[in-house]
Amino acid sequence: MHAKEEVRIRRVEPSREVVCVLGASGYITSWLVNLLLQHEYSINATVRDPHDLKKIELIEEGSFDLVVEGCIGVFHTASLCYFDVKDPQAEMVEPVVKGTLNILGSYAKVPSIKGVLITFSIAAVILIGKPLADDVVVDETWFSDPIVCEKLKERVKSLGINFTLLEVSLTEKNLLSV
């Protein structure tokens, strides 16, 4: 799972509908978890192991089978995001593609799941074009700047990194309609 995500399944009330939240300790996702709890959902959640951030189990086939079992929906908000990588395609893009396909493979085995929402939360707040110092508070006023994103997109293209692999893979497997 994402950077050695830990799975702990606990049913608070069996009568509640259950959703799966992958990457539940992320900034945006913590708000999602709060909202889901306010609406009385039970949550199967995965969180990052702070002592082993580089270990990746996300791409192990079937590693999400247990956590999505019995759920009506999946929120996939966990993703690799490293800023100092030597080979972005191999270290970030390929694991994200494989991991997302793995999660969707687990989802496809569970008939109770009505849908999956895929989002990678840090990208929504980190590309703002300002330094992220220790004393900076990241809150609802922070969001990615479209100009910074466009510049990054051009840089990514110049590096030859293929960020459309996930979209193409999902479309080819009829798991995404574009």
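That was protein one. Protein two is written in the same sequence-then-structure order:
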Amino acid sequence: MKFKILTFSMLFILLNQCQTDVPEKTLIPKQANEFIWIYKPAGDHFFGPDTKHLKEGQWYNDWVPNDHTFVKGDDGKWHIFGITHPRVDSDPIKEGIHEGEYASFHAVSSANSFKGTLKKHHYADLPKVLPPKERPGEVLANHAPYIIKKDGLYQMIYGHSPIRLAVSKDLFKWQPKGELFSDSDGTRDPNVLFHNDIYYVVYCSIKSVRLVKSKDLVHWTKPKVILTTRKFDPESPSLIYFNNSFYLFVCSWDGVWDGKDIQGAYQHKTYVYHSKDMMDFGVDDEKEITTLNSHAPEIFQDEDGKWYISSVEWPNRGVSIDKLNWEAQK
């Protein structure tokens, strides 16, 4: 009898050990490919200063958004901030494709739930944020803002080189706080992950995505290359932690554009990489798990935990949203 009890006990332990040793399946993000065009920029006066093709104070009907971020405010509304500038009718188009990107657009929802904002042209424009006149001494560019909340203040981290910081109590009035960090190879398109009480900022540089970290948003580590992309120039990285793994979403620019249509400048191929180690996403397609259709995507969850992927200037002129689901790797 004792032998049988011992045998059954050992069998239970072995079975339990086998279950524990079963590797966790990698979850793959799958989009619905049913984009909803939630934001179309309204006409506005150019904030300045003058550029070759744009005049301060002049009205322009057609505006072009780019890298952006979503944040739910204390007012219960969802807000979008992102790169913006008037469309430049230069000849060739390439000459003015990024001309005048000196401030962020700010658009707000009228619904309190994100699901309620998923309607055509739902978001309404508010005054532009942090043009050069509001941040004297900085470089003109105001690119790719990302917003988190810390110590009761909204913290906007933006670029490009150097990466800078502005703070706000309400998402409407912003106070520049100066430079956070820089990289001799350049810093573009910052994105933030707060994980285990540490702030991780990923950004694009020469043929690579790099990472720095900080406990206080003041003191930063030296940059580390976490992904090398020899086949394209990386853009608009998003780093998330999900299912005990790290996922890095990176938009690509391969330099192929005939310059005839503005949307051709906003390529919509986004590569997704998976790793257990956020410091190592490999070289080229070493840790690539899928590709998605989106330009400058933001990957985020709503109040109910549902996942979404955004895209700008494709498939619509403005910001669009698609649902994102996760499926086990086969």
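The chain has one domain: 32-328. Keep this in mind for the problem set.
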